Amino acid sequence: MKETSPYTSNLRIISKFSSRDFTPDGNLAKGVWRRAHWMHFDHGAWVSQNYPQSETEVASVWTTTSVYLAYRCKYTTLNVFKGEDPAVEKWGLWDRDVVEAFINPIPERVNHYYEFEVAPNNQWVDLKINKDKTPMVADANWNSHFEHATHIDSAHHIWTCEIRIPVASLGVKSISAGSQWRLNLFHIDGGGNGTQRHFLSWSTTGSPGFHVPTRFGIVDFAR
C-alpha cells in the first residue's frame, strides 16, 4: 500500500550543478547565475494578495559539498536594523526586511529543518528547527558557518543576496545529481507595523505563519 506524503506542495525548483565552488559577493551577473533556472514570486505567504513592488527572483546551484541560493528583490524603501555589527548573528532579524530559506535535506523528518536569513545590509541568522517539540525549538546556538553577501542597487530599488551553505552542517555528506530535498523560500519587505509589511513566500503556507513544513516545495539537484 502506497504511503501518503505529508507534503501538500508540488512546487519545484531546479538547482543546477556548478563545477566549482565560489565565494558569495552579492553580484548576480556571474555566468553561474546566468545559466541557472530562475523562478519568481510576488504573492503573499498566506493571503490572496500580490505585491509586485516586492517581487522576488530566486535561483539555486550546487556542488558536491555546498548548496547556493541567489535572491533578487524589489523594494520601495529598506527597513533594516542600523548601527549593528553584521558579523554578529542577529536574533529577531525577521522583524525587518529579509530573505529566508527553510531547508530540509532529509524530507522523511518533516519537522526537522534549518532556517537561514539574510538582510539587505548583510545581517544574518541561522537556526536549527525542531517542530516535534512543544513549543517549537529554534536553536540559535547551532552554527552552519554559511557564507552570504548582499548588494543594494538604490537607483533601481533592487537588492541582491548570495548564500553558500556547507551541506555537512545539514547532516549530509554530499549532494549528488537526482537528490531531492524540501524547502520554502520567503521575502519580508516593507516598513511600519505588520499591516504595512509584505510577507511573501514561494510556496504558500495556507495559514498565518512561516513554519509550515508540510507546505515545503521540492528542490531537484540536476546536472
Largest sheet: 13 strands, mixed
Q: CA-to-CA gap between the ends?
A: 33 Å
The CATH topology, please?
A: Immunoglobulin-like
Taken as a percent bin, the fraction of beta residues is 35-45%
Helix content: under 10%
Mean pLDDT: 96
CATH class: Mainly Beta
**Approximate shape:** globular
How many helix segments? 1
List the helices and strands in order: EHEEEEEEEEEEEE
Number of strands: 13
Estimate nothing, just give the exact number of structural domains: 1
Alpha carbon gyration radius: 16 Å
Low-confidence stretches: none
What topology does this entry show?
Elements: E1 12-17, H1 31-34, E2 39-41, E3 56-62, E4 66-74, E5 98-104, E6 112-118, E7 124-130, E8 137-139, E9 147-153, E10 158-166, E11 180-189, E12 198-201, E13 217-222
Parallel strand pairs: 1-3, 1-13
Antiparallel strand pairs: 2-3, 3-4, 4-10, 5-6, 5-11, 6-7, 7-8, 9-10, 11-12, 11-13
Q: Mind explaining what this structure looks like?
A:
By secondary structure, the chain is mostly beta strands. The protein has a single domain (12-222), classed as Immunoglobulin-like. It is 2% helix and 38% strand. The protein is built from 1 helix and 13 strands, in the order E-H-E-E-E-E-E-E-E-E-E-E-E-E. It has one helix at 31-34; strands spanning 12-17, 39-41, 56-62, 66-74, 98-104, 112-118, 124-130, 137-139, 147-153, 158-166, 180-189, 198-201, 217-222. Strands 1, 2, 3, 4, 5, 6, 7, 8, 9, 10, 11, 12 and 13 form a 13-stranded mixed β-sheet that branches. Strand 7 (124-130) and strand 8 (137-139) form a beta hairpin. The chain is globular. The model has no long low-confidence stretch (mean pLDDT 96).
